[in-house]
Every structure is written in C-alpha cells, then in structure tokens.
Amino acid sequence: MIQLNKIEELKNIIEESNNIVVLSGAGVSTASGIKDFRSKNGLSKESSIPLEILLSRDYFYEHTKEFYEFYKKYFNGKNIKPNITHKYLKKLENLGKLKAIITQNIDGLHSMAGNKLVYELHGTTYSNHCIKCNKKYSSNEVFKSIGIPICTCGGIIKPDVVLYGEMLPTEALEKSIESVENADTLLVLGTSLKVYPAAGLINYFCGKKLVIINKDETDYDRVATLVIHDDLTEVFKKLDKFID
Questions:
Q1: I need a labelling partner for 127 at 20 to 30 A (CA). Which of 30, 106, 144, 241 fits?
Q2: Are residues 152 and 241 in the same domain?
C-alpha cells in the first residue's frame, strides 16, 4: 500500500516545479491492456524465440512472415485507450508544468491522450513505410493486411518502430537530451531503466528533483529524490484528486 506521505511529497514536488519532463516506459501502458516485455505475464512468455531476436532488424528481413505473425497479434493497439496516468500527464501539460514526454513505448497513447510534445524514442506502430519507395502507410492498413503487408510498388511495408539492432532516431534523442538538461523535475514512470540508451538520459539531468515510480527497484533509486515502488494506476488515482 502506498504511503500517503509519499503521495503528499510527490504532490508538493509537482506544485513547486515549472519544467517537468517525463521519461515513460512499459509500466505506463500496462493498465491499458498492453503487455510489457519481461514481467511474469509479459511478451517474452508468448514466444520460444527471445524477443531480442524476434523483434530484431535481421529477423524482420530474414523471417518477415514470422515477424509479422507475432507483430500483428501483439502490437495492434486499435482498441487500446489511454489510462489515468496518460490523462494525468495531459492535465500537467494543460497547467503549463509538463514540458515534454520522452517515451520508450510505441503505442502512441501519450499522443492519443492529447499531449503535444512527445518524443518517441522507439518509434510508433502508427507510422509505417515501404522499404522500396518509402510510401507511407497507416497502422490500420498494416494490421488489416493478409500476411506480409505489401506496397503498391511491390515493396515490403515496415513499421516505423526501432527494432533491436537499429539506431534510435537522432532528432528525437537529441531533443530528449535537451529537454532533460533543462528540466527542474524529472519523473521516471514505469521503466526498469535497463534499456539503453534511453536509460542513460538520466545522466543528463541536473535539475532539483528526480522522481522514480516503478513497481520494482531500479539501479537509479539510490540517487532519486523520491522513489515509489507501486502500481502507477494506484499512485495517480490518489494524486489526481489534487488537480481540478
């Protein structure tokens, strides 16, 4: 059970902050019904092939059919909606406190909730392109396709998500670093901080308050101002009452 004094401390930190940046991970989206990778009910349990291989660049090009069988089954977010954490962050943006969200998630839920400045470090399922002619395709076109989605030119359509073995988008990474450097408060939500280079963004933070909210411990807990080990939904249900 969450200690109320920690919720009170979090409320005070937010009230005193004028430039909040959020770093969000899979734990933010699990309440919307999206599986994370490595928990006891995560995606790693759904395949005999390690996700680092199955969702890699090489596997996409060498086993495209098998890649899409898994991708279409587990990454179609058509009926997924933002949860209370996403909605709370939108309220913070409306108040002028939240300046940017840096996310490792590819589900597009932060944008769906209405947040304007979202840096998607690992790309998004909502954008796709032909690897031959670069024609753009919607997620609906990809997920409704039969088998491997094919462009009108005959080329294979690829999701604009960062697969294992690919580089992060340069602009999103540079803007993320800049946002973290300028933040007075960094809220780290629902991430184990084990995936780099995203986890390394914390090293650019030189503001006043580092807050980590995650079910499990992280390697950065020892340097944080406030650490809450609990479910994000429960935290933001209690915190939400403080914002009109």
A1: 30
A2: no
Distance CA 232, CA 22 (A): 13
SS3 readout for 16-44: HCCCEEEEECHHHCHHHCCCCCCCCCCHH
Residue 156, domain CATH:
3.30.1600.10
- 5-34 pLDDT per residue, tens: 899 999 999 999 999 999 999 999 999 988
pTM to 2 decimal places: 0.92
d(CA 125, CA 156): 16
**Residues 6+ positions from 189 with CB-CB distance below 8 Å:** 22, 23, 24, 25, 27, 28, 85, 213, 214, 232
- 53 and 115 co-located in one domain: no
- Residue 152 sits in the same domain as residue 231: no
- Supply the mean pLDDT for the chain: 92
Q: Give Rg (Cα) of the chain.
A: 18
Residues annotated as part of the active site: 122
Count of the separate structural domains present in the chain: 2
Structure-block tokens of residue 181: 């450097």
